[in-house]
Design a protein that fits this description.
This protein has no helices and eleven strands. With 126 residues, the chain is mostly beta strands. It folds into two domains: 10-64, no CATH class; 69-125, no CATH class.
Length: 126
């Protein structure tokens, strides 16, 4: 799942509530298509990160992806991509792969790992 690692500015993205598909998970990357949130494609830049569960009115709390926000996310590859590499998103839009050609630019690899031993990377969407 994508989480905020740090911000380059003191401002925090406001939470907005947008309608979306019933299958969006907490921390997933989403695109706004025809006024509704949907899971973003593996090589596309997301518009929003989902911040919570779908509400009774069909909307999700979400934060707009900004160039000033650095995210932490799990990397599905046992060896994470090198800093400066633009990588694709996982099919579930909850993390990244080590495959080049996507919209997430890796800035670093954290010392911690997921319970399955896979690395956590930091980076930005470009």
């Amino acid at each position: 799942m994508f989480t905020v690692y740090k911000r380059d500015v003191a401002d925090v993205e406001p939470t907005v509530y947008l309608p979306g598909a019933a299958s969006l998970a907490l921390g997933s990357a989403a695109a706004l298509t025809s006024g509704s949130l949907a899971k973003v494609g593996t090589s596309a830049k997301p518009d929003y990160i989902i911040l919570g569960a779908q509400r009774a009115d069909g909307t999700y709390p979400a934060a707009r992806v900004q160039a000033t926000t650095v995210y932490a996310a799990p990397c599905s590859a046992a060896s994470a991509a090198a800093a400066g590499t633009k990588v694709t998103l996982d099919a579930d839009a909850l993390g990244v792969t080590a495959t080049s050609g996507g919209a997430f630019t890796v800035e670093g690899v954290l010392d911690e790992t997921q319970p399955d031993g896979k690395p956590i990377v930091t980076g930005r969407f470009a």
